# Entry
Amino acid sequence: MLDQTQILSIPSSWKIELSQSIKSVAELLDCLRLDSSLLTGAQRAAMQFPLQVPKPYLGRIRHADPCDPLLTQVLPVQQELESPQGFQKDPLDEVSHNPHPGIIHKYRNRLLLIVSPACAINCRYCFRRHFPYEQQRQSRQQWVSALDYIRQHRELNEVIYSGGDPLAANDKFLGWLTAQIAEISHIKRLRVHSRLPIVIPSRVDDDLLRWMTASRLKPILVVHVNHANEIDHAVEAGLYRLQENGIRILNQSVLLKGVNDGAKTLIDLSERLYDCGVSPYYLHLLDPVQGASHFDVAQVQATQIYAGMQAALPGFLLPRLVREVPGKAAKTIIDTIL
Ligand SMILES: *Cc1c(COP(=O)(O)O)cnc(C)c1O
Ligand code: SF4
# Structure
């Protein structure tokens, strides 16, 4: 029999799965029966932004298919080392909207809290691949002063947990932070932007549900899925469990060449999300970050893809096509009139 202290010291199963993520290019190629000619380029690219793939996600990638849309999101490639004009390290100019460590405040009534610098998966197209996250790591005392910032900014009504991936943080810390925010009367909503419930579905556990639903704040989870193959039965079960606990779920995707740059693929994704009770929210055009130019879809083509979606989907399954323009007060909705 285990006594109580032993029970408390057992790490959650999601943490074990996270620690078992694949971080070696050679191992990834081997597991997926891929050609070793990909190795050198992948290893060079991984030196700039490491490879990281959790096993539950790996299990959804087709074997021996170098063009698998899930593989493309995680496999480092030689083209990442190219730096065409216009692709920058901080394309969204987040560094200049960083009024306090751990806070990005760009839009008037909502701000991001960088709750965890870590991610559970490293997505090759990520616009935060060069963000100085380590400098955002902070002590309890710094969080107390971040809370003061929120308290003083009475125009805020929503706090967004971001990262990295905020759900890579401990539930104990997240519970503490959420309880503190719930005491600030002008904050009405808590939003969590996370890919963890998709890439490691066991992240949706009792501890997570407890703090997300324990306060008066209305909880919203924005997940990140780019392709219907990312949603298997375990992911679907987790998404249902969150909703049974009163958590509203939205999805954002990035339009990515070689992953989802076709109307049919995106229509299938919206339909699959609806089967899981999730509403499509945003379809982002790629942010021009250095190392991700090979994922870029030209705006004209994006507009054509979107028109194909519009012709096949009800309005409530149509995400908004947006781009982030530095200095704007909100995301910019792309004019989709052809
Ligand atoms: C995207 C984003 C938000 C949230 O924007 P919504 O349109 O409310 O989803 C908030 N802050 C920053 C810095 C963002 O990039
Ligand atoms: S922040 Fe999101 S998109 Fe970027 S690497 Fe992490 S999970 Fe992927």
Summary: The chain has 13 helices and nine strands.
